[in-house]
Amino acid sequence: MRFQHSISIVLAATLLSWTGAAQAKPARHTGGSSTGSAPQGFLTRVLSVPFRSAGAVVGVALGVPIHVGRSVVADSRSTSSSLENGSLAGAPGPVRSALGTAVGVPVGIVTGAVRGSVEGTGQGLTGGYKRPFSSQSVGL
Questions:
Q1: Is 79 exposed, middle or buried (0-12, 13-18, 19+ CB in 10 A)?
Q2: Given CB 3.0 to 4.6 Å as the disulfide criterion, which of 47, 65, 67, 73 pairs with 120?
Q3: Is residue 20 part of a domain?
């Protein structure tokens, strides 16, 4: 179900971007035949939809775990250090450090998983559509 939903989002964004781009460009008159580069440009865009859609799907599939891993580590470190440096009462030492880590790591896992999932999905969809199968699409 998620796969179908992702593809429909990418296809809807594609159609919206095409209509917005077509309205923003001024009409040009070549004065010649009506079979200019417009049909070829449209055909290229239509044929690139499956490739771009697959790039977005791969970007989400690889980008979400990468972003979750990075976010979990970053959130665990920041929560642990903020607890160790000011939120816990007492003198600095191994007990305070252990308490900060004991609370900070579970909090970082939960918040990092949520934040990484959201950021990875967004990055995978937009980066995977704009530049399919690139390191930008997976967040590297």
A1: buried
A2: 67
A3: no
